[in-house]
Amino acid sequence: MIIKKEMKPRFVGLLRRACLRMTLALVGLVLGASCTSGSPFVVVDNPSDSTITFVVDATTYTLDPKSSMELALPVGEHTLTSPQGKQSTFTRQEYEEKSLLNPLEASYVIVTTAYTDSEQERNIFLEQMYQLVEVNGRYYYGPLEVINAPYTARTSSGHPWEYGLDEDFDDKIRVNAGGSTSINIKKAKIYRAEDFVKAYADLEVDPSELNQQ
User: Fold this and answer.
1) Any residues with CB less than 8 A from the CB of 134 and at least 6 apart, and which?
2) Are 137 and 202 in contact (CB under 8 A)?
3) Distance of CA 192 to the CA centre of its chain
């Protein structure tokens, strides 16, 4: 018998003397759905206030300030030349649908949340991902990861993020739970540093206070 459950996300952890709670999101996910080979596009982003010009595989592109574009790139090795003339190589693999090409090597933040039907006060599986990160000179504590590589397609745990730069976490998910009595699904989203700082000001900490816990 298939049991369908709707789950509201629960992101819980101890910070200073309070529990951190985040209301994030997700809709229409069917657990166990088959994978496809993914989109041929990568996202190229320019979070700066200036127009940039960069080169991918001998083709020159221009990107306006505070904008992004999709670039069709086949699976395999590619070369990126940054606006400053720095050259790097990267390899695009299968199943990398929302990978990020970062000509400026700017900082981005990956946020992970858990969707669960459990009423437990703490989610130890998510808390294992907690770390202290620095973003724009400030410190934040949570299930966070900062990236600034020229090309990134997966989190440090090896999983792709489900929500891109201009996508929001949804409010809930629907899954085919089968006979499971407890569901705990982790999902990630990538943010521009500026967007992250605006959305997660409550995660900012004083590192000295954090170390005293």
Assistant:
1) 140, 146
2) no
3) 10
Token pair recorded at residue 55? 């080169």
Tell me the CA distances in angstroms from 114 to 8, 16, 175, one per residue in order: 9, 21, 14
Distances (CA, A) of 50 to 63, 83, 86, 104: 9, 11, 18, 11
Handedness of CA 94, 127, 8, 206 (dihedral sign): negative
d(CA 82, CA 10): 39
Phi (first) and psi of residue 203, to 5 degrees: -95, 0
pTM: 0.80
Helix/strand/coil (H/E/C) assignment for every residue in 86-112: CEEEEEECCCCCCCEECCCCCCEEEEE
Structure tokens belonging to residue 205:
């900490």
Q: What span, in angstroms and rounded, lies between the C-alpha atoms of 156 and 150? A: 15
What is the rounded CA–CA span in Å between residue 117 and residue 4? 11
Which SS3 state, helix, strand or coil, does residue 37 take? coil
CA nearest neighbour of 112 among 188, 165, 183, 171: 188
Model confidence pLDDT, tens digit, residues 74-126: 999 999 999 999 999 999 998 888 899 999 999 999 999 888 776 555 677 78
